[in-house]
Design a protein that fits this description.
Length: 143
């Protein structure tokens, strides 16, 4: 699980409204691209709230201790499941949900095989380059 967070400094925290706006980003991850514009607006609100927390309130005065206590953020889970890539690929199939475990194991095996094949291809190219350099060096010594 990957956790995403924002900390402007150790003494400031985003307001609860800014944290609610970050929940929009979680909905975008789950809901799709139609909500991108809403997420951009939410991100702008989060930046504005963080700036207000850093630079004081509208009167130019620093926030009091009671203001800081009132603006205590509520916890929001913005974690990303470890198997989110497999879940996304599975959602694009027409398989029943009961087949996810089998699909996930095959998906991970295919992913590992793809990475291994690409690594082997890079190694072959590297070995060909070394062999070509050795052949060139041997030819130079023979001449």
């Amino acid at each position: 699980t990957v956790h995403v967070g924002f900390h402007a400094s150790s003494n400031s925290r985003p307001s609860s409204s800014a944290l609610k706006d970050t929940a929009i980003l979680d909905q975008v991850v789950q809901g799709g691209g139609d909500q991108m514009m809403v997420a951009a607006g939410g991100a702008a609100a989060a930046i504005a709230a963080a700036a207000a927390a850093l630079f004081g309130n509208k009167n130019g005065a620093s926030a009091t201790a009671s203001d800081k206590a009132a603006a205590e953020p509520e916890a929001i889970d913005v974690s990303i499941p470890y198997n989110s890539a497999a879940m996304l690929a599975f959602s694009e199939t027409k398989l029943p949900k009961s087949k996810f475990a089998e699909f996930e194991s095959l998906y991970l095996a295919k992913s590992v095989a793809d990475v291994t094949a690409k690594k082997m291809a890079r190694d072959v190219v590297e070995m060909e380059n070394v062999a070509a350099k050795l052949a060139k060096d041997l030819e130079a010594l023979s001449a």
